[in-house]
Amino acid sequence: LISICEKKYGKPTENCFLWPSRRVAERCRHFVERYYVPTISTDDSTPTPHTGGVTATAAGVRIVEFTIQAPSSELKPGGLKQIKVFATFFPKEAFSIAKQFWQHAGDIVTSRQAAYCLRWLNLNKAEEEKQEAATAAILAASRNAIRMPRGNRHYAAGTVKPASTSSSNGSPTLPSGDLTNSVASIQLQDEKKAGEDVDDEDRPVEEEADGIDSRDYEVYVEERYGRNLDLSFAPKAKVALRRRIATQVAHHAGSGWTGTGDYVTEDDVYLYPTGMSAIYNAHRIALTLFPTRKSICFGFPYTDSLKVLQKFGPGCYFYGNGEDSDIDALEKEVLEKTLGEGVAEEDKILAVFCEFPSNPLLKSSNLVRLGQLADKYGFMIIVDETLGNFVNVRILEYADIVVSSLSKIFSGDSNVMGGSLVLNPQRQFYKGLKDAMSREYEDLMWVEDAIFMERNSRTFQTRIARIDENTEALCDYLRTHPKVKEVYYPKYVTTANYLTHKVEGAGFGGLFSVVFKADEGAVRFFDALPFYKGPSLGTNFTLACPYTILAHYYELDWAAQFGIDRNLIRVAVGLEDRDVLMKGFQEALDAIPA
Questions:
Q1: Are the CB atoms for 9 and 64 separated by under 8 Å?
Q2: Side-chain half-sphere CA neighbours of 115 within 13 A
Q3: pTM beyond 0.85, yes or no
Q4: Which of 24, 50, 92, 152 fits a 20 to 30 Å CA distance from 114?
């Protein structure tokens, strides 16, 4: 889809990224203008920075709106009439800068939306070609009719009149109306006659779907058997998602709830196209209240989360270990300086961001203590609870905003992306945040993604319970194995903090990390592990990755300062039978030399 836009609207010296709204495209433009320094080249390989103050704006960063109209065959009541995407064009040498925005902000055109756009473009092209062919046929018939010699009127009476009329000057003209729709209606009538003796309910799905492309077949099967709703139900699917999240969060309301008013409702839940989008927008919305204040990143987070705090807005302080002792240092080094008369606004703190638990060391922050400091020093608490998840931990009562990647275990099927943001109506900044959301929030979750997410998440509670049990059994086994140096899992790491927020009867989550005693242990173990390998987590199937190498390859020494071993293997446990999991991990351990 990007290639089509670049070919249609771009220059040879430009690239572009696509966004689901003009506002996002504008934010990308501002990001590129802030960080991109145009260069000139003395030869084909060595760029030299300009010294004349040339800006990215002067170099040409622009926005193009690309509207795709619905093909006539797709038009139906309540359906989509058009799709708009917005392209931010920039010089090719600014590609790496624009890619950072795409990666960190997460407000993207998802793959499913892009595929839908491409499908519409192909259908429109086919309809245009069909209409052109029909027009050519009518013109040919008209020309033949004009050249036909006069014959016996008796024999001519039964002939079919050509589909053309004459204008006042005697030249042939085309009939009015939509030729494509006319041809389509004739085809539908013929198909109905050919199959009128076949009961639709008795017809095999393969026969019914014969001749349609793979995407149509997928949608047909999902809707025929009631697994997915029709796209016209996407707004209701989004309401169901918001209500599902709010109900789960409210069900676990703890002692932090004052008991006045609703703890949380679906109106406090906001959906986003990705988990990173929820994190980025939580930070962006908070900045609308205090635009000059820095944030604090507490604990070692997912790499893009830290980049959001560093690159958007005034910056952040980073306390990467995330231990209770770091809270003492944080208060002394930063927070105490924000009290008293004459403290500049830019010296105050916007928010503390943390994960609960963190990725990949599974540390749990002391949210009770951080919440007390937030009340004392006047900042927000924003928590990413993706790894803890709505079922296992009770987080919102201690936070102003809770974000989550719904792409992970909430979905589980690893076939759709999404994120959520929940506001706590009991916290002091709720009104300001709510007002900001009313001005700034855009519903950018693609309709098909909402449909798939709603379907996948219907079983998230039962899936999480089984994954919790599998993971705990695996970690208990690995922790006592002689070849294992360390297992990072909330049951063993900052346990007291996790237990403070653990829901009664719930588990410790489905993610853990492991380090081996032998230097070559990680390679041998990873290669022999008979499960899927990949960088995601929260899948219904077990998935492992060499996390540090993938996420911090160019900063291994920096990551090591915070206890992230370069040979660390991260494992997201799935729904497999426990015996299968145990046997597979035993085989991988056996591959490590004694």
A1: yes
A2: 12
A3: no
A4: 92
